[in-house]
Amino acid sequence: MDDDLHLLGEDLITTSARVVRWVPKSSTFTLSLAAARILARLSDGGATRISELAVAERCSQPTITNHVKRLEASGLVERAADPRDARAWMITLTPQGHEELHQLRESLGTGLEPYLAKLSRKDLKALRDGVDAMRRLMAVEV
Predict the structure, then answer these.
(1) Residue 108 has pLDDT above 70, yes or no
(2) Tens of pLDDT, residues 24-37
(3) What residues make up the domain containing 83?
(4) How many structural domains is the chain composed of?
(5) Does 123 reside within a domain?
(6) How much is the pTM?
(7) Does residue 42 fall inside a structural domain?
(8) 3-state secondary structure the chain
(9) What's the CATH code of the domain at 95?
């Protein structure tokens, strides 16, 4: 069974990486996938410290800080002193950040429609069930 879980893990990551390559190129948004992940995390979880973003995104604090600086310069996030520790910053999405994330997600859905339209109803149901399982997996975040 452990071998099956190992292979499932490999397949999940490699397949999802291939699907990500289908992200449409668009002149209407210029976000990197890393920046989009940060916006999505802030949208899902609310105000977050930079150190917590770094842990959640599994990257260094300087890397997240650089992303946040670029997002802040673009008006997509804002920082405020953490009320628990004035030395730390809390990062939140701005209304413009919410809108940019919404437009990105809309574009992703539109970009994948032609691929999904080629699948049978049975496969579409299996994908929906798989996405639900992945959401439950993401909620675990070991």
Answers:
(1) yes
(2) 776 566 788 889 89
(3) 31-112
(4) 1
(5) no
(6) 0.80
(7) yes
(8) CHHHHHHHHHHHHHHHHHHHCCCCCCCCCCCCHHHHHHHHHHHHHCCEEHHHHHHHHCCCHHHHHHHHHHHHHCCCEEEEEECCEEEEEEEEECHHHHHHHHHHHHHHHHHHHHHHCCCCHHHHHHHHHHHHHHHHHHHHCC
(9) 1.10.10.10
